[in-house]
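Risk register update: the risk that structure generation would not scale has been downgraded. Supporting records follow, first protein first.
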Amino acid sequence: MAVTMKQTSLTVATLGLLSFIFGVIAENKKPESGTTITGKGIVICKYPYDPSIVLGWLSVVFLAASTAAAYFSLFYDYKGKKIPQAALFQNTSFLVFFNIALGTTGLAAALLLWPTISEQLHHVRNVHHNLQNECPTAKTGLLGGGAFLSLDSTLFWLVALMLADNTREDYFEDAAYEPVKVTA
């Protein structure tokens, strides 16, 4: 069964939307701080159950899946017809949206990974020798910002897919009307 542009666009949109949803929920579920337990010369931080770590990782995974699906579908040969990559990148609008999609995806991944990894490290490295430690959590707002950039990158990938489809149609339309050279 052949994959259609509509199916790939729906896949990219669904995966990107899931990344956004998991990122926003992760931001809302992140605890303010941990509980400080003071011992002899050490401070142990006890953190409440924190689903934001798992949700953050899920957001990153769905962002990666959405990006992979979009990237694959840009260069996939639809209806058995393959277009050269050079023809796609000659379209200035496609090139601009492709690069913006790559940039926003990278920034979204950074903003989702940074607090997720930081929060996980806070939970694992919870014994401190500084008695003034306040049991911090990851920086607030980064997961939410990453979630919105994840949604933005999905929208840019969808625009790039539409522009690639237009370029593909133009390429094959021009190829159909190319004059035939006759040699004697």
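Supporting record for the second protein:
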Amino acid sequence: MDSNYLSGRIQAALLGIACGDSLGRSYEFLSRNEIREMFQEIVDRDGGTHNQAKGTYTDDTCLTLCLTDSLCNGFDLEDIADKFVKWYDDGLWAADGKTVFDIGISTRNAIKRLKSGVSPLESGDNDEYSNGNGSLMRILPLVFYIKDIEIDDRFELTKQVSSITHAHNRSVISCFYYLEFARLLLSSTEKLEAYRLANETVKNYLISIDIKEQELGCFDVLLSGNISDLPEELINSSGYVVDTLEASVYCLLTTQSFKEAAVKAVRFGLDADTTSAVTSGLTSLVYGLNSIPNEWLGELARRDEIDALANRFADSICSTNESQN
């Protein structure tokens, strides 16, 4: 993969997630009916549930940037976990450098365990009722690190990174599906073909490692056909990880631009910031940096620092690839 192309896609991914996140932040927890009735136009605005200024991203982006920052020095699960703790304690990569807000229950529980000395291999909640979208929302940078390794290794590293906070198979599978889909998009596979291939690859792999049929059934909407044929009313946007994954894929497949997809994700309501952030991660890989509206980028907190991080990560990936060739 050309280094300039890779660098551009990393930059687009990080900035895209941050912009989508910021766009959805002030609409979080509103129902789609409330959004429809109250807002004719979706714009990044001041206020909202957390009373933050426009251009302010949430924990979704903070933890995405923490993961990216760690991966610049190779894969070290302890270091990833340490950066999550530094975000929680000191505001590492927070939009204003200090304020931590909108943290999910499972993520908070996991970080408290990490702070008490629990290994990141054992820190994440593992029960069926701990399948929020807190690992999915931050997982995308990993695709750039694992894109050229074997599928067994891709699954294992995805599992480890998800499990720092969300260790149940459903969260792990959601992250795995998302990254397999993203990997295909990153290779310039057309989005509908990428969706078809992701379904085939993920389903066959999960069957090969004996994932329980009951767990596979949770992904029927994605794996059993074309999700884009469904009416919008059947697409949910709660904080449940499968809902967020389905909504992000749906928004990508049923729109034709970065902005259209991000706005559609926000209009679904409820966990609007995360739905938009996860959607925007995918659309950034399809449409690139130039597709992100300039007004969103211009208002985004820490824009220059995110650019610098993206360049540092791209240099790290390219240096690793050169040393292996």
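The domain at 3-125+139-324 is CATH 1.10.4080.10 (ADP-ribosylglycohydrolase fold). On this basis the risk owner (M.S.) recommends closing the item.
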